[in-house]
Amino acid sequence: MHVGITPINSAAYLDPGFLRSFAQQLEELGYESVWTFEHVIVPHDYESRYPYHPSGKLGLPTNAGFTDPFIALTYVAGATQRLRLGTGVNIVTQANALYFAKQASSLDHLSGGRLELGIGVGWLEEEFDAIGVPFGRRGARADEYIDAMTAAWSGEDVNYHGEFVDWSGFSMLPTPAQRPRMPLLIGGTTPPAIRRLVARGDGWYVIHKDLDDFKRLMDAMRAECDRQGRDPAELALTAYWNYHREGLDSLEVYRYHGVQRLLVNTAALRMGRPEDAIAQFAIEALPACNES
User: Fold this and answer.
1) Which of 104, 86, 70 lies closest to 6 in space, CA to CA?
2) Helix axes of 69-79 and 97-110: crossing angle, nearest 10 degrees
C-alpha cells in the first residue's frame, strides 16, 4: 500500500520554504503522495454539522490559515519529481465548473500527470452563502459537473446541455496528461456519495470513524456495486489511517478490503515536528505498508 501525508495546505505548511523542503523530504523518504483539504473560509460561527467528528465541528480554529489546494499542489509539483498530488477533497459544487475543469487539467498537464482529483459536495452551508452559491441540490449539481467536466477534459468539441451546465462551441486545451481524465476520487460516506462513487468515480476518498465503521462502509460500497453492476475492484480506495490509535495490526484489515493508499496526518502521529514525524514514521511503518 502507498502512504500519503495530509493536509499540506495549513499550519506549518503555510511557510513556502518549509512546504518546499517538506515535500522534497517526503519524496526522498519514499512517501507516495501529498494531500490538501479545501475551504475558502470557515465562519466564526456556524450551525452546519461537520460529519467526520463527534463534536460536529472542524478540528481547526475558525481563524486558521489555509492555502488554495490547486495552488499549494502546483507549488509542490514544481519542487518535486514523483510525488502524487491529491485533493482531499475539493468542493466542486462551490466552484464554477468550467474554471474547476481548467485548473485541474492545467495542474495535471504541468505536473506530468500526477493529480489525484478528490471531490465532494460540501457540508458547510454558511460557506456556500458567503460564496453566493446555492447549497440545495448540490448532489445533483456535482453529478452533472462531473459529466460535463469529463467531456471538457476530452479535448474534443464540447456539446453538453444540462440543468446546471450549458456548454457548446469550444474545446479545452491542454488536456490532462492522464487520459481520459485524472483519477477522480469521490469523497463522502453517505448513501448518495456511495452511489456517485460507483456511478462516476475512479476511486473513493474514505474518512471513517474506526475500523468497524470502515468495514461497514466497505460492505455498503460492495452492495452498491452489485446494484449498479460494477466490479468493486475497479475502484481505488484511499483511506485515512489513524496510526496512533490503530497501529500496524490494522494494515491487515485495509489489505483485506483492497485499500491501495493510506493517508496519515502528521499531527495525529504525535511524534513532534512534522519533519521529524515523517522521518520516524518512515522507519516504523513504511516498510510494513510496502509489504505485498
Assistant:
1) 86
2) 10
Query: Measured between alpha carbons, how far is residue 40 from residues 7, 27, 99, 224 in Å?
Result: 15, 28, 15, 32
Q: What is the pLDDT of residue 266?
A: 87
- State how far the alpha carbon of 132 is from the alpha carbons of 93, 96, 122, 125, 127, in Å: 11, 11, 14, 10, 9
pLDDT of 292 reads: 62
| Residue 291: predicted pLDDT | 83
Spans in the chain with pLDDT lower than 70: 292
Which amino acid, 80? T
The phi and psi torsions of 194 (rounded to 5 degrees) equal -70, -35
d(CA 85, CA 69): 10
pLDDT of residue 49: 94
Look-up of cell digits 500527470 = 113
Q: What is the pLDDT of residues 79-100, one digit of tens each?
A: 999 999 999 999 999 999 999 9
Residues 185, 75, 57: CA angle, nearest 5 degrees: 55
pLDDT given at position 53: 86
Neighbours of 273 (CB within 10 A): 10
pLDDT at 277: 93
Strand duo 33-36 + 84-91: pairing: parallel
Sequence-ordered alpha helix ranges (H) in 30-114: 69-79, 97-110
Beta-strand (E) ranges in the chain?
2-6, 33-36, 84-91, 115-120, 158-161, 166-170, 184-187, 203-206, 236-240, 259-265
Task: Give the position of cell 490494522.
Answer: 250
Q: Which of 103, 94, 166 is nearest to 132 (CA)?
A: 94
